[in-house]
Design brief:
Elements lengths: L1 H13 L2 H8 L3 H14 L5 E3 L4 E3 L1 H24 L8 E7 L1 H8 L3 H7 L3 E7 L13 E5 L8 E7 L2 E5 L1 H7 L13 E4 L6 E7 L2 E7 L4 E2 L2 H9 L4 E5 H9 L4 E2 L5 E3 L7 E6 L7 H13 L3
Parallel strand pairs: 3-4, 3-5, 8-11, 8-12
Antiparallel strand pairs: 1-2, 5-15, 6-15, 7-12, 7-13, 9-10, 9-14
């Protein structure tokens, strides 16, 4: 019955019998038969079926919650009974936003793979959010905690930002003396699907919210960072992207007495998101533990 429950959960996650069948490597008729058997066993209708979509009945919603708990409990029990010193092995699929992946994750992968020779990593640098259930991703590294309550999260590091420009740009257009001066500058912006962009600044008890504009916007940090390096404007990005460039003089800190952020509260923390309960696949646990240690160095 737990196998049928797993099939039912996959159908709900993907929204159709055919998609679930493709992922599970089953015939669509076999998927439908397993759902029919569940409905017969529990003497209830779990799904409303139409030619366009599937939707849960009220009983189906209750069943889904219980099925997820039972399946998760079985996974946890299997992991608990397996040997604790099992060597990590198999394919590890990682999705990480482009800038962090390029600067922080890719350089440490060879060290991880040297430690665990039976592991193969597949990594995707993508600024789009991914669904760990439907896209078969083991770990997603993102700014901000999970919105999906079925996912688990482990914080990797705080995401503080810096405000920078090239010396050439500042010599030509002048360095800002106060946050409001940024309204007179070309600011290189992250695309957050908003009509107006604001940068936020704090100094002690002072707080300022400044509207900024510019001629270049990107969803990821690399394009606007390159533009700043080549004298295109002022950029606010994660400090881990710019610390080395500031240290070698490629970029210059602007308004160093102010603490910038990309949102009113903060610029967000960086998390590793993953499926499963307390007892996860050894390769997932090993990689997250390795990440936490490596990112502190």
């Amino acid at each position: 019955m737990l196998t049928a429950m797993r099939i039912f959960i996959k159908v709900i996650e993907l929204g159709s019998f055919s998609k679930a069948a493709e992922v599970l490597n089953m015939a669509p008729s076999s998927v439908a038969r397993n759902i029919d058997n569940l409905e017969q066993d529990f003497n209830t209708t779990l799904l409303k079926r139409s030619t366009r979509q599937l939707s849960l009945t009220e009983a189906g919603e209750l069943f889904l919650e219980g099925a997820r708990k039972l399946v998760n409990d079985e996974d946890n029990l299997k992991a608990l009974l397996s040997e604790k010193d099992t060597e990590p092995e198999g394919i590890l699929r990682i999705s990480v936003f482009e800038g962090f992946g390029r600067v922080k994750i890719c350089p440490i992968l060879p060290g991880f793979l040297a430690l665990y020779p039976k592991v193969k990593v597949e990594i995707d640098l993508d600024n789009q959010l991914v669904d760990l259930h439907s896209e078969n991703v083991d770990i997603a590294i993102r700014i901000g905690n999970a919105q999906d309550s079925s996912l688990h999260a482990r914080m990797l590091m705080a995401n503080q930002t810096s405000l920078c420009a090239s010396a050439n740009y500042l010599e030509k257009f002048g360095a800002p003396k106060k946050p409001e001066d940024l309204q007179q500058h070309n600011c290189l912006l992250l695309d957050r699907d908003r009509q107006r962009t604001y940068w936020h600044f704090r100094k002690g008890k002072l707080y300022k919210k400044v509207p900024v504009t510019g001629n270049l916007t990107s969803r990821g940090g690399t394009p606007i960072l390159e533009a700043a390096i080549h004298h295109g404007g002022i950029v606010q990005l994660s400090s881990w992207m710019m610390d080395d460039l500031i240290q070698d003089g490629t970029l210059v800190h602007c308004l160093p007495e102010w603490a910038p952020s990309l949102s009113e509260q903060s610029s967000g923390d960086i998390y590793a998101l993953y499926r499963g309960g307390k007892h996860m696949r050894p390769v997932i646990r090993a990689f997250i533990d390795y990440l936490v240690t490596a990112l502190k160095l």
